[in-house]
Specification:
Length: 232
Amino acid sequence: MPEFRILGKNPLAWWRRTVRSRGVIHALRVAWYAALDSGFDYWNGTDTTRRIHPTRIETDSANRTHSSYYGATRALPFFGLLKQLNLPKDITFVDLGSGKGRVVLLAAEWGFRKVVGIEFSGPLCEINRKNLVAYGRRHALKAQVEIIESDVTQYVFQKDDRVCFLFDPFDSVILEQVLRNLKQSLRQHPRALWMIYNTPAEHAVVMGSGLFQKWQCHWVRGTEFFVYCHVL
Ligand SMILES: C[S@@+](CC[C@H](N)C(=O)[O-])C[C@H]1O[C@@H](n2cnc3c(N)ncnc32)[C@H](O)[C@@H]1O
């Protein structure tokens, strides 16, 4: 069945809060695109939509207290953003905190050469692998896909990693470490690199890293993405 709990636990509270802070048109747009997204699993035979509270994410990592909830990036906004950005495709796309793999599936369908998902929860990695099989039955997945069960702070960035994706996965403590690792990789292998941040709660931390010369806000079909660019 489609996931109906699409605007948090209390849709009425969400509605009031959003209308007050962003206006009624904005709230209607977000609700409309959330409703459209709610059928994703039903149509694709996957399990990606249902949220998981951080305390219920199963992991042995000591960094679990820095984690946010599990939730999935919406498909239409993600594809809309990729269309706007027109990034090269012969590169590796890395989802930092990939969860059940919604973004891994979409990026693999989009046609990046390689897609890597890094997730510290074993059970979520397992669901991601099953989702790949189910989604692959209905869509042509053009990328080589790798799901890595690991804390993101342990990930060693590779020289072909050119797009990093985050959907509000963790707090500033983890993000600062990830950005330090990325800086080291860029020093060893200078290259242009994009970071896409869905719901950019730690924007100040990204800017404070000094890694990115340019950034832009993209509101796409009710989802806010910040896109940062490291140029050579
Ligand atoms: C909001 S979900 C995003 C899922 C996916 N990227 C998407 O956009 O559909 C964030 C994910 O980050 C994972 N996560 C949080 N902290 C992590 C860490 N230190 N290492 C690896 N994964 C982490 C959580 O378990 C969760 O699955």
